[in-house]
Amino acid sequence: MRTGTGAGRALETTFEASVMQICGREIVADRSGILCLPDERTLVVADLHLEKGSAFAVRGRMLPPYDTRETLERLATAIARYHPRSVIALGDSFHDRRAGERLGPDERARLRRLQAGREWVWITGNHDPAISASVGGIVRESMALGPLVLRHEPASGPVAGEIAGHLHPAARVLLNGARLRRPCFVADRTRIVLPAFGAFTGGLNVLDAAFGRLFEPAGAFEVHVLGRDGVYPVATASLGPD
C-alpha cells in the first residue's frame, strides 16, 4: 500500500479492487469499472456506448473517432487480468441501434478476439434495444445467475440481488480541501450499480435523487470510487454535490 499527500494521491492509497457482498456472495469491484463474479468466473461491464463518436459525427458533431478502440482496449486489459469464462455487458453496449454496423474492421476483429473461447452476453438497454447479429454473442433482456439478476436499468424500489448499470454513477469527493469527480460503484447488500465503462460516457452524481430512490433508507449505500490505480471506499460524509 502506498501513501501520499494531497487529494490527487489520497485516492491512490489502497488496493486495485474492492470486495463487496451482495446476497451473501462476494463480488470483486475492479479498478477498471468492471465486476468480477469469482464463483462463475464471469466479468460484468456496463454502458460501453461503442461507436458514440460516430453517432455524434452523423449529427454533425465531430468527436475523435477512437472511443470504440479505447474502450475495447481497456476491456481487453480487464479480461487479461481475470481470464473469465464469460462476459456479460449490461446494456447500452452500443450507442444506438446501428452502432454495431458502424464498427470498423479493426474494432470488429478486436471484439471477436475478446469473445473467442468464452460466452459473451449482450443485455439490451435503452440505447441498444436491438443488437446486430454481426457483433457475435448472445442477446438477452436480462439474466439470472443464482440469486443475482443482471439487467440494464435498475428496478424501481428495493430489490434483492440486482446488478445493473444505466445511471453512470459518479462521486464528487471532498478531500484535503480539493474536489475530485470520479466514476464509482454504488452498492448496498442487495444491489450494485456499475459505473459506465465507455470512453465517451459521463456520470450522474450519486447524491442525485435517482440513487436515493434505489436504496432504503435514502442514501444508505456504499460508494467505491475508481482512481488511477485502484478502487477506494469513500465515506458518504466526504461526498458533495456538483
Task: Describe this structure in a few short sentences.
This protein is an alpha/beta fold and 242 residues long. The chain has helices at 6-10, 52-58, 67-82, 99-102, 105-115, 209-212, and strands spanning 17-22, 25-30, 35-37, 42-45, 86-89, 119-123, 138-140, 143-145, 148-150, 162-164, 169-175, 178-187, 191-193, 204-205, 222-226, 231-234, 239-240.
How would you describe this structure to a colleague?
The chain has helices spanning 6-10, 52-58, 67-82, 99-102, 105-115, 209-212; strands at residues 17-22, 25-30, 35-37, 42-45, 86-89, 119-123, 138-140, 143-145, 148-150, 162-164, 169-175, 178-187, 191-193, 204-205, 222-226, 231-234, 239-240. The chain has 242 residues and is α/β, with parallel strands linked by helices. The chain has one domain: Purple Acid Phosphatase, chain A, domain 2 (4-Layer Sandwich), CATH 3.60.21. Strands 8, 9, 10, 11, 12, 13, 14, 15, 16 and 17 form a 10-stranded mixed beta sheet that branches. It has a 7-stranded mixed beta sheet with strand order 1-2-3-4-5-6-7, covered by helices on one side. A hairpin with a 2-residue loop joins β11 (169-175) and β12. The longest helix has 16 residues, at 67-82. 42% of the residues are buried.
Topology of helices and strands:
Blueprint: H1 6-10, E1 17-22, E2 25-30, E3 35-37, E4 42-45, H2 52-58, H3 67-82, E5 86-89, H4 99-102, H5 105-115, E6 119-123, E7 138-140, E8 143-145, E9 148-150, E10 162-164, E11 169-175, E12 178-187, E13 191-193, E14 204-205, H6 209-212, E15 222-226, E16 231-234, E17 239-240
Parallel strand pairs: 4-5, 5-6, 6-7, 9-10, 10-13, 11-14
Antiparallel strand pairs: 1-2, 2-3, 3-4, 8-9, 11-12, 11-17, 12-13, 12-15, 15-16
